[in-house]
């Protein structure tokens, strides 16, 4: 047994900050009123956070780098179909988990982009909505709320389900390493 | 027999004429909402400090919003659920509940106007927030996404 630092400190801070930002973004959007102003600020903060993650994906530590979890389609299929060669344990993101990461980053970026052009049909609009016509802004709103919003719920559901699957079926706790940063490796 | 059909035709025609044409009803409603939205946005701009505070102007904005609230509450005549509208058919199926929510919004808008008249920015901000939430409640339930 060997202890390995898998999630470096910036990755852990990124993870839990994103959890807080996504939850508060959902809450402020549901409440509306002056909380919508907070929703905008949360959006800007999320942009900074995700921009940092992308940078860290290039210059961060081993398991933070995109190159460590950018898998070929064949590797992903082999992992899903559980071929012998694919059973090796991945300490960082495994081939299927990596798809989730890219999906989440993509959806969050799309949420930020569409949010800038969205409007609430009451009294507020994203900072760039005034540069486009109302129909287009309405479509951005639809993408923001109806498409990306629902995709985020779906991705959160998958994330929690995967953690539960690992915890109950594979008897591996994935939550603790996201706090401590460490995992144990069998050698 | 001809007489019977004649009367029937007159009845149908008379009924149709009495109804507001759908497109006109929708345009009327959307115009009122457009004005309401414009003036809500102007109040919000003052709250956010993007526009200078001017008591008389802010009162005028709030008065227009209240007035438009009074217009839209009766701007959902039967049959105006088709064409280029985002009003969901549930409005007409649940007209009592819908009108109840509209009355609640109207009372929030009245409070906003009263708040604007006090000139207290904290009060204005709070009441504007509550009024917006009240608008949102109906949008969430009855406006096509």
List the helices and strands and how they pair.
The complex is a heterodimer of chains A (187) and B (145).
Chain A: E1 2-5, H1 9-31, H2 35-59, H3 73-80, H4 95-117, H5 134-168, H6 175-180, E2 182-185
Antiparallel strand pairs in A: 1-2
Helix pairs in contact in A: 1-2, 2-4, 4-5
Chain B: H1 2-18, H2 22-47, H3 55-72, H4 90-93, H5 95-118, H6 121-142
Helix pairs in contact in B: 2-3, 3-5, 5-6
Instruction: Give the overall shape of chain A, derived from the CA principal axes.
Output: elongated
Number of strand segments of chain B: 0
What proportion strand of chain A? under 5%
Largest sheet of chain A: 2 strands, antiparallel
What fraction of the residues of chain B are assigned to beta strands by DSSP?
A: under 5%
Strand order of the largest sheet of chain A: 1-2
Poorly predicted regions of chain A are none
Question: How many domains would you count in the coordinates of chain B?
Answer: 1
Oligomer: heterodimer
- What order do the SSEs of chain B take from the amino end to the carboxyl end, as H and E? HHHHHH
Q: What kind of sheet is the major sheet of chain B?
A: none
- Helix count from the secondary structure assignment of chain A: 6
Q: Biggest interface and which pair forms it?
A: A-B, 16 and 18 residues
Number of strands of chain A: 2
* Helix and strand composition category of chain A: mainly alpha
Task: Explain what the structure shows.
The complex is a heterodimer of chains A (187) and B (145). Chain A is mainly α and 187 residues long. Chain A has one domain (2-179): Up-down Bundle (Fumarate Reductase Cytochrome B subunit), CATH 1.20.950. In chain A, 64% of the residues lie in helices and 4% in strands. Chain A is built from 6 helices and 2 strands. In chain A, helix 1 runs antiparallel to helix 2 (35-59), helix 2 packs across helix 4 and helix 4 packs antiparallel against helix 5. Chain B is 77% helix and 0% strand. Chain B has helices spanning 2-18, 22-47, 55-72, 90-93, 95-118, 121-142. The longest helix of chain B has 26 residues, at 22-47. Chain B is elongated and about 70 Å long. Classes of the chains: A mainly alpha (187), B mainly alpha (145). At the A-B interface, helix 2 and helix 5 of A face helix 2 and helix 6 of B.
């Amino acid at each position: 047994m060997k202890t390995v630092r898998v999630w470096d400190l910036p990755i852990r801070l990124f993870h839990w900050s994103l959890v807080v930002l996504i939850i508060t973004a959902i809450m402020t959007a549901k409440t509306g009123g002056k909380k919508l102003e907070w929703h905008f600020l949360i959006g800007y903060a999320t942009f900074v956070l995700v921009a940092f993650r992308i940078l860290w994906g290039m210059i961060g530590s081993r398991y933070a780098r995109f190159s460590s979890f950018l898998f070929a389609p064949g590797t992903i299929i082999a992992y899903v179909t559980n071929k012998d060669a694919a059973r090796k344990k991945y300490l960082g993101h495994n081939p299927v988990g990596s798809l989730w990461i890219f999906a989440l980053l993509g959806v969050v970026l799309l949420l930020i982009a569409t949010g800038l052009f969205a409007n609430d049909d009451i009294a507020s609009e994203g900072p760039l909505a005034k540069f486009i016509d109302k129909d287009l802004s309405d479509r951005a709103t639809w993408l923001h709320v109806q498409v990306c919003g629902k995709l985020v719920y779906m991705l959160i559901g998958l994330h929690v389900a995967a953690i539960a699957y690992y915890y109950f079926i594979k008897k591996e706790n994935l939550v603790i390493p996201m706090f401590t940063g460490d995992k144990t490796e069998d050698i | 027999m001809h007489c019977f059909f004649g009367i029937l035709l007159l009845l149908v025609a008379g009924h149709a004429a009495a109804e507001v044409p759908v497109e006109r009803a929708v345009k009327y409603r959307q115009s009122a909402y457009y004005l309401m939205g414009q003036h809500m946005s102007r109040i919000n701009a003052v709250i956010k400090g993007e526009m200078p505070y001017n008591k008389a102007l802010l009162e005028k904005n709030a008065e227009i919003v209240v007035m438009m609230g009074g217009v839209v509450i009766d701007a959902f005549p039967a049959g105006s659920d088709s064409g280029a509208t985002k009003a969901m058919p549930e409005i007409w199926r649940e007209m009592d509940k819908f009108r109840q929510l509209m009355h609640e919004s109207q009372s929030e808008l009245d409070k906003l106007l009263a708040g604007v008249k006090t000139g207290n920015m904290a009060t204005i901000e709070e009441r504007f927030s509550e009024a917006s939430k009240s608008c949102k409640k109906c949008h969430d339930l009855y406006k096509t996404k």
